[in-house]
Specification:
Blueprint: H1 4-31, H2 36-41, H3 47-57, H4 63-75, H5 91-126, H6 131-145, H7 148-162, H8 185-191, H9 195-232, H10 235-242, H11 247-285, H12 290-299, H13 303-331
Helix pairs in contact: 1-4, 1-13, 5-6, 5-9, 5-11, 5-13, 6-9, 7-9, 7-11, 8-9, 9-11, 11-12, 11-13, 12-13
Transmembrane segments: 105-126, 138-160, 201-220, 259-285, 305-324
Domain ABC transmembrane type-1: 99-324
InterPro entries: BPD_transp_1_N, MetI-like, MetI-like_sf
């Protein structure tokens, strides 16, 4: 059972982390070259018009006033309105529309990585130095070494252009229009009871999920193997086998629980990487998630959207790490002492 004191302490640690991220994002944006007022007014606009735009946005205020105003907006979850990406649209609505797309991709990629990574890691460990072990290690090394911007176009070329069995981009076929209830296209198609649209969404998401899952699977597999090998060599494992317990039962009953602790660390880090990797994945497969939103906002100097997007990434990442910490204490109660 997780103690309330442990969870409260971890939640309080989120405050300085998010404050630091917010301050860093504000500093980087305002110290970097580029003027949102010029981007909005256009290169041929007069200086007077640019000054008016700057005044309307509050960018002519002293920097410390802008910083205090920004922190106040963050605390109240009011991220202002978009300058350029969707001019005049509240950033919170923009994020609410795009965020489920990215989270859905990251969750599916993580599930794919877990489904294949953990069994392969266990198999590689229990069959150490066999052909199975060598093949698994080579496959994991290849998965880590292949970048998303290379594997994505390669899969599109093979399965969409050559074989023609999967669509090249998007989340669902253009023939289907599904009302957004949760923002997760697979869930929304099921809620609508449209199985043809569900199959279309599955086919569209298959390649992006595989691209994200390969990278996650490779890391999890390698960590699972090394962690389980270390546990197998412990004295209590030898004692269990000496008492006549079968090797498979010994590994499943006594080894996996302890071997999972470092693996969970990797899973938490990987989820953050999947969110970051979604920027490339969404760009390659033309999916309008929060990753493509961030790239678009940076190119147009849309400060509110960039600040809110980075903060959301940081918040999700810290939440995942909080879940990892809680899982630690469940697997090993000594950790929250």
């Amino acid at each position: 059972m997780v103690s309330k004191r442990f969870v409260t302490k971890r939640l309080l640690l989120l405050v300085p982390v998010l404050f630091g991220v917010a301050s860093l994002v504000f500093a980087v944006l305002h110290l970097s070259p580029g003027d949102p007022a010029v981007a909005i007014a256009g290169d041929r606009a007069s200086q007077e018009f640019i000054n008016e735009v700057r005044a309307d946005l509050g960018l002519d205020d002293p920097l410390w006033q802008q910083y205090v105003r920004f922190l106040g907006e963050v605390v109240t979850f009011n991220f202002g309105e978009s300058y350029q990406v969707q001019r005049g649209m509240p950033v919170s609505e923009l994020l609410a529309d795009r965020l489920p797309v990215t989270i859905e991709l990251a969750i599916l990629g993580q599930i794919a990585g877990l489904l294949f990574g953990i069994p392969l890691g266990i198999l590689s460990a229990v069959k150490q130095d066999t052909l199975t072990d060598h093949l698994t290690r080579v496959g994991a090394l290849a998965g880590i070494s292949v970048p998303i911007y290379w594997s994505g176009p390669l899969l599109i070329l093979l399965f969409a252009q050559v074989l023609g069995i999967l669509p090249t981009s998007g989340r669902i076929g253009s023939a289907y229009f599904i009302d957004s209830t949760t923002g997760f296209i697979l869930v929304d198609t099921l809620l609508a009871g449209n199985m043809a649209a569900f199959r279309s969404a599955v086919m569209h998401l298959l390649m992006p999920v595989v691209v994200l899952g390969i990278y996650s699977m490779a890391f999890i597999s390698r960590m699972m193997r090394s962690s389980l090998l270390e546990v197998i060599r412990q004295d209590y494992m030898r004692t269990a086998r000496a008492k006549g317990q079968g090797s498979k039962i010994t590994v499943l009953k006594h080894g996996l629980r302890n071997a999972f602790i470092p693996v969970i660390t990797i899973i938490g880090i990987q989820f953050g990487s999947l969110l970051g990797g979604s920027v490339l994945t969404e760009t390659v497969f033309e999916i309008n998630g929060i990753g493509t939103l961030l790239v678009d906002a940076i190119s147009r100097s849309d400060y509110p959207v960039v600040q809110a997007t980075v903060l959301v990434f940081a918040f999700l990442y810290t939440l995942v790490n909080l879940f990892v910490d809680i899982t630690y204490s469940v697997l090993d109660p000594r950790i929250d002492q």
